[in-house]
Amino acid sequence: MNSIVRHMPDATALQPDFRSAMRQLVGGVSVITVGRGDEITGMTVSSLSSLAVDPPSIIVSLNRTASSWPILQRERVFGANLLAADQIGVAERFAGKGGLRGAERFVGAEWRKQVTGVPLLVGALATLDCEVEEILERHSHAIVIGKVVHVAVAPQSAALAYWHGSYVAVDRDDDLGRLAALSVPDPRLTP
Ligand SMILES: Cc1cc2nc3c(=O)[nH]c(=O)nc-3n(C[C@H](O)[C@H](O)[C@H](O)COP(=O)(O)O)c2cc1C
Question: What's the confidence (pLDDT) of residue 174?
Answer without folding.
Answer: 80
